[in-house]
Amino acid sequence: MNIGAVADATGLPAKTIRYYESIGLIGPTKRSTGNYRQYETRDVTTLRFVERARRLGFTLKEVGDLLMLWRDGQRASADVRGLAEVQLRRVDARMQELADVRRSLQELVDRCHGDHRPDCPILDQLSGDATGSTAA
Question: Between the chain's N and C termini, which has fewer beta carbons within 10 Å?
Fold first, then answer.
């Protein structure tokens, strides 16, 4: 299977597929006589695994760790769970940060009159101007 077919099958750009190969997330591919990469079904399966893990926010290093665990029939599920728990804590922290950002934005929007007047509490806040004078 050529890289275009793999890109179609995985939804990943060819550049990303080549990058994942270069950092070892998928093994080196066989080459055709014309030196084109030739992928196997297992490469597509691995790339789908990588993409799903990336969508869950795992770092490339963590994806590599997950791949090693996936391939290890003697793995302990506790190791996999541990990686997932770390990611879950990061997601929870990010969600809290986003909730704080949303709350701040909502307060600014609520304070803004949104009319023809030039004074704007949103711009004042962004500029650090506590006096409320909007100057460019």
Answer: C
Stretch 92-116: mean pLDDT:
95
85: Cα within 13 Å, side-chain hemisphere: 6
Summarised one tens digit per residue, pLDDT across range 29-46 is 888 888 888 999 999 999
For 63-88, the pLDDT digits (tens) are 999 999 999 999 999 999 999 999 99
Measure the CA–CA gap between 97 and 102, rounded to whole angstroms. Answer: 9
The two three-digit tokens of residue 125, written as one number: 């806040």
Helix or strand run (H / E) with residue 38 = strand 37-38
Considering the four listed CATH numbers 3.40.525.10, 1.10.760.10, 3.90.480.10, 1.10.1660.10, the one that applies to the domain covering 1-55 is 1.10.1660.10
Phi and psi, residue 134, nearest 5°: -95, 110
CA–CA distance, 114 with 108 (Å, rounded to integer): 11
